[in-house]
TrEMBL record:
It comes from Paraburkholderia sprentiae WSM5005. It comes from the Bacteria. PANTHER family: CARBONIC ANHYDRASE. It catalyses: hydrogencarbonate + H(+) = CO2 + H2O. Zn(2+) binds at C39, D41, H103, C106. InterPro entries: Beta_CA_cladeB, Carbonic_anhydrase, Carbonic_anhydrase_CS, Carbonic_anhydrase_sf. Its EC number is 4.2.1.1. One of its GO terms (molecular function) is zinc ion binding. This is Carbonic anhydrase. CDD domains: beta_CA_cladeB.
Amino acid sequence: MRKLIMGIVEFREKMLPQYAEQFSKIALAQTADTLFVTCSDSRVVPDLLASTHPGDLFTMRNVGNLIPPATPEGDSTGDLSEASAIEYAVLFLKVANIVVCGHSECGAMKALYARNPKLKAPNLDKWLCHASSAAFRLEYEGPLNDKLKPHDQLSQLNVLVQLEHLMTYPIVRQQVTAGALVLSGWWFDIASGNMYAYERASRSFEVIDRALAERLAARLVSRAR
């Protein structure tokens, strides 16, 4: 806790002068164009990984980067927090992108893969049910990348499942169909520091190097026309 407190002081004394103008501009409203859904894991730092600044990302974090699916009427089948964030991002911020970002060595995915009833964490156990279809796919359909550890294989499949859950929300589905919203699946490898994007053509997560970044950006431009 002391490190956290002293970090606040260091930011105030050294970094705040650099961001003062930025904070002044965004003080009354935010104009984020992306909802970034990722895990609560302390090793995943969206603004650091994407070189973004205050006001750039509307971020939703939870254990396992999960999104409870919606009913046909658009009501969440799980916690209301995630559904509320989706509604706010799509209806009020009118984001053009939603990214679901999983990561390596995810504790939630390890727990789901182990299926250990002795954990004595009933709330976590219930929460992880929103990733159960990813575990089913891993067992019966196999991984996207068989070179990864089993829990990392599960983590990648989980990203795809959560994208499907997003599409159960009518407001998301409508915007995607209209071409006003793009859904993307990313996966962060902590050990290497590399971010990967899911590519449907290759059915795999490919590292976001400059070449892939330019292709992804070009697609966004073409969809916006």
